[in-house]
UniProtKB/TrEMBL annotation:
It comes from Leminorella grimontii. Residues 18-36, 43-73 have a biased composition (Basic and acidic residues). Residues 115-190 form the RNA 2-O ribose methyltransferase substrate binding domain. GO terms for cellular component: cytosol. SUPFAM superfamilies: alpha/beta knot, L30e-like. One of its GO terms (biological process) is RNA processing. Keywords: Methyltransferase, Transferase. This is tRNA/rRNA methyltransferase. GO terms for molecular function: RNA binding; RNA methyltransferase activity. Pfam families: SpoU_methylase, SpoU_sub_bind. Gene3D superfamilies: 3.30.1330.30, 3.40.1280.10. Residues 1-112 are annotated as: Disordered. The keyword Transport does not apply.
């Protein structure tokens, strides 16, 4: 080691030369001991650092080793392309979260339900069978007129929603919803035998063969309710509760009993054995009448169809009376719904006031 003065500033330049002993000490991992007495004292922080695991230690968790053919785990934060070999994700039918609902059971449930819309139709349904309502949707403007329905649904824990016009159009499937839509459980149709148990002595039953237009169905239901007809027979009783038909009926659907059947011939035979006469529109074999001269039997079954001239080919062989609606002759026939209204009015003139 040597110390020397350098320059006029008076500064001292100190130079240190490493000795052999220092070289030997530099090879060791020990640092110079700066503690008193030549012994290093370990503080609390030093002890905690010694105990704490450090990155790079053997205690650091290691990622699991994957096999060569093993796929990497999926991350909820990463978008991925679905492998073509993977099965399609299960459709829960709009139910949020994981669901264990069987698809077949879900389809059956949907088949048993129907949407009813229109203010008059929904009011009539609430008055006659509120227990059938599963869920309800309203726009704000109609809620004051459904105050009783809202109170009943709240008391009976029936879900209802106040939505805007656009949302209600999506729910009901039409823009002609009238501000309200009910999701309901369909009624099960009566059998012919069950209907006959409560039939009156003067009775009129409307049988619909191959009538599928919901607006025609709704118009006929409205005419039936207006003229006091109780029973409507068709293959699928659920047709009488389709949204468009019920809305067109303007509440008339709730005044009727739907009668279901799989075999029209057998159903007509049951009515004939119970004293009913089968009336078919149009000319055919047997007795032919015009509406202006026809005297309806006290128990009448009228069969209508959307086939040409409103005549049912299935019922032609079993009919007791063929009737023609006489008019000016400028048109060949009437709409099936209008034909039903004209014939029902004629029957009502004979038996409606009795």
């Amino acid at each position: 080691m040597s110390d020397a003065f350098n320059g006029k500033s008076g500064k001292v330049k100190v130079m240190y030369v490493r000795s052999e002993d220092d070289k030997d000490n530099s090879k060791s991992d020990k640092r110079p001991d700066r503690s008193r007495g030549g012994q290093k004292s370990a503080g609390r922080g030093d002890r905690e650092r010694e105990r704490a695991p450090r990155w790079g230690d053997e205690q650091r968790p290691r990622a699991p080793v994957r096999k060569a053919d093993e796929k990497p785990p999926r991350s909820a934060w990463q978008a991925r392309l679905q492998d073509a070999s993977e099965p399609e994700p299960f459709d829960h039918g709009g139910i949020a979260g994981k669901s264990q609902v069987d698809p077949a059971q879900l389809r059956k449930q949907r088949e048993e339900e129907s949407k009813v819309y229109g203010e008059n139709a929904c009011q009539a349904l609430f008055q006659s069978r509120p227990e059938a309502i599963v869920r309800a949707y309203f726009v704000q403007s109609v809620t004051p007129r459904f105050r009783d329905a809202l109170r009943w649904m709240a008391a009976n824990r029936k879900a209802y929603h106040v939505v805007d016009e656009q949302e209600l159009a999506k729910v009901s499937g039409t823009e002609h919803h009238g501000g309200v839509c009910f999701l309901i459980k369909k009624r099960a149709g009566l059998s012919v035998a069950d209907y006959l148990k409560s039939a009156s002595s003067n009775d009129f039953v409307l049988v619909l063969d191959n009538v599928g237009n919901p607006h025609n169905l709704g118009g006929m239901m409205r005419s039936c309710a207006f003229f006091g007809v109780k029973g409507v027979l068709l293959r699928d009783p659920g047709q009488l509760e389709s949204g468009a038909a019920v809305r067109t009926a303007e509440g008339g659907a709730e005044r009727l009993s739907a009668i279901g059947c799989d075999d029209f011939s057998q159903a007509l035979d049951e009515f004939q054995r119970a004293g009913y006469s089968v009336v078919v529109v149009g000319k055919g074999e047997g007795k032919n009448e015009t509406l202006s001269t026809l005297s309806f039997p006290a128990k009448t079954v009228l069969v209508l169809s959307e086939e040409r001239d409103g005549r049912s080919s299935l019922a032609a062989k079993q009919c007791d009376i063929n009737v023609e609606v006489d008019g000016s002759g400028q048109l060949e026939s009437l709409n099936v719904s209008v034909t039903a209204g004209v014939l029902l009015a004629a029957w009502w003139r004979q038996f409606g006031t009795k």
